[in-house]
Write a structure and sequence with these properties.
The complex is a heterodimer of chains A (about 290) and B (about 425). Chain A is mainly α and about 290 residues long. In chain A, about 70% of the residues lie in helices and about 0% in strands. Chain B has about 425 residues and is α/β, with parallel strands linked by helices. Chain B contains ten helices and 19 strands. In chain B, strand 9 and strand 10 form a beta hairpin. In chain B, helix 4 packs across helix 6. Chain B is globular and about 85 Å long. The chains are: A mainly alpha (about 290), B alpha/beta (about 425). At the A-B interface, strand 1, helix 3, helix 7 and helix 15 of A face helix 3, strand 5, strand 6 and helix 4 of B.
Chain lengths: ~290, ~425
Amino acid sequence: MKTAEEHWLYIISSKKKLINFNFKEIWRYRDLLFLFVKRDIITLYKQTILGPLWYLIQPLFTSLIFTLIFNNLADIPTGDNVPSFLFNLAGITSWNYFKECLVGTSDTFKKNENIFGKVYFPRVIMPMSVVVSNLLKFAIQLIVLIGFYLYFIWFAEPSYAISPQLNFALFPLLVLLMALLGLGLGMIISSMTTKYRDLTFLVQFGVQLLMYGSAVMYPMSYFRDKLPNYYWLIEWNPIAIIVESFRTMVFGIGDLDIHKLIYATIVSCIIFLIGLVIFNKTEKSFIDTI
Amino acid sequence: MSSDIILKVEDVGKQYRLGLVGTGTLSHDLNRWWNKAIGKGDPYLKIGESNDRSEKGNSDYVWAINNINFEVKRGEVLGIIGKNGAGKSTLLKILSRVTGPTTGQIKTNGRIASLLEVGTGFHPEMTGRENIYLNGAILGMTKAEINSKIDEIVDFSGCLRYVDTPVKRYSSGMKVRLAFAVAAHLEPDILVIDEVLAVGDAEFQKKAIGKMQDISNSDGRTVLFVSHNMAAVKSLCTRTIVLNNGNMAFNGSTEEAVEFYLKNEANTSAAFYDNKEVKENSDVISIALLDKNKELSGVFGFEDTVSVSIKFKISDAKLINNPLLGIRISDQLERNIFTNQKSLKDINTKAGVNEINVEIPNSLLVPNTYYVTIGFHIRNQEVIRSLKKIVSFKIEETGTEFHNYRSKDFGCVIVNCKWKTQE
C-alpha cells in the first residue's frame, strides 16, 4: 500500500531532466501527427490557381536555371553520360527535401506560439508532422525526376546510357538521413530562436549558402580537382555526401563511398539526438521567453 | 483514502522576469550557469517579489504564483477565483503543462485536458468537420474517439448546416459553439476550464453550464474552473480557492470563498469619504459603506445588505428647522435608481455629532456599479452639504435569476412581483 499511495500517472516538476522522452505519450498522439499532415496538405495551396503544380514548377525552373548558368555558362561537367538538366534535377530534388525539413521545422516554436500557449501535447509532434508532410512533396518531385529520367533514356537523341545501380536499395536510408538531419538542425534552431531571434535571419541566408557547399550543382570530384585546399569543407559535409550518394545511385556514375555514408549516418543521428534534447528542454518553458 | 486524491499541487511557484525579456538575458543566463556550476542555487530565485501589479518593485523578477499547495479529490469541481493578475491563469498554465513551474511539483493520477481558450488550432481554411478532428486531436482525443462522437459534437454545437463549410465563413459565435462542443466531449480525468462562459449567447451559455454540471455530476469527472463569474462559480463548484497576488489566500467552501473574495477584492478607498473641510456648526463628517460585519467594503454580493453609514454634526439652531438627510443611488449610465430621505426629527437626532446607518435592501440592485449621493439640507432654506456621487460600490453577480443574460439590460432593480392565475 505504500507504493500505491505514491503512484502517480505523471509528475510535473520544476526539476529538469536531460533526457525525458515519453514515447508512449508520443505514440498516443499519433493521430494528431497525421491530422497535422493533412492540415498542411489541404491548406497549403488553398486559393492558388496552380495548386500543387507549384511543387513541380519550383524544382523544374531551378534546374533549368542551374543548367543554363553552371553547365552551359560556367562549363561545370556533370559526367560523361549524364544530361546536365537531369543532374541538376536530381541534386535539387534531394536537396529540397532536406531544406524543406530544415526551414519548416526551424520556426516551430514561433509559428505555433498560439497553440503551444494554450494546450499541451508532445511538442515534438509538430516538427515531425512537417517532416512527414514534406515527404509527400518529395514524392511528387521524385515522380517528376523519374519522368525526365525515362525521357532521357528512351526519347532523347542521342540516348543516354544511364541506369540506377543495385545499391539504389539504400535510397530509403538517404531519405531517413535527410529527414533526421533537417529535423535535428531545425529543432536546434527553433529552440534557440525562442530566446535569440537573430537565428531567424541566419537561417534565411544560411540555407542559401549551405546549398553551394552541398554539391547540389556540381559533382564532388570536380570540386576536389578545382579547389583541393577547400575540399574538406565539402568532403565532411553530411548533406553533400547524401546528395552525392543519391546521384551516384540514380545515375550509376562513380562509386558509392560506404565509409562516408556511415559517417553521414552517425552525424545525422547525433545531430538529431542533440536536437531532441534541446527541443525537449526548451518546450517546457519557452512560452515565457518567446 | 489517499487514492481518492487525483491531483496534488505541492509548493508550486512560478517566477517571471519583468521588462524586456531578451535584453540582458545572456548575462543572467551566464550568471545562473556559473552559480549552478559552483554549487550555489539560482541567484535570481531569491530576489523575486510578490506580484502586486500596482506597486513599483525593486527587482526585475516577480513570483506570479508562490507556495501554492492544494489537493483535489476525484469528482470534485474546484473553483479558482482571484483578481486580475492574481495568478489564476499562470496556475492553470502550469497545470495544463503549457509552461513549467519554477519550484515545486504537481502530481496527478489522471489525464489533464485544458480549455484555456476554446478553438485552439482552428484553421480557417478547413471545414467545420475537419476542424473538429484537428481540434479534438490537439486536445488529446484519438481519431477513433472523435469518430464515435462526431454526430454528438455537431449536434451539440448546433452548426449542422455549416459543418462542411470552411470555418472562415463562420460567425464568431458559431466558431465558439463548435469549439466548445469539441471540448465538452473530451473525456479527460481532469478538465481545466478558464473563462469559457464569457462567450456565446444566453442560450448557449446555459447549455454550456448544464454540460459542465453533467460532466462533473454524472461522470464523476474532476473539473478545475477559473472564472470571474461568481454566479457560475457558485452554481458549479464544490470547493473554491482564492488567489491573491500569487498566494493562496483561501481554500474552502465556495460560499465562504466567494464572500472572502468579495471582501478582499473590494477597493475600499472608493467606499469611504472623509470630509476635509467640515463646517463650523453643521456638516457631513464622513461616509462609509459597511457590510454585515460592520466592516468597510466596496463590493457586495447580490444578497448582501449595503449599509451607508453617515457621520454628521448638527447645531441646535439648525435642528429646530427640521433638516433633511437624503441619499440617492445612481448607476454608471447616470440613471438615478432611487432617492430616499428622512427628516432628522424622525430618526431621533440630537444636537452634536451623530452617526446613522442607512440600509439599502438586499436582493434589489442588479449587479453593477453604483454611486451614492448624499444631500443634507433644510427645505426651502439652506443646502448644508451636497455630495454628488461621493462613494461607490459594486454589486457582484452572485446568482441572480438573470445571471445567464449578462449582457442584456434588464433594468436596475430586481423585484418580486406577485403572479397569480385568475380563477
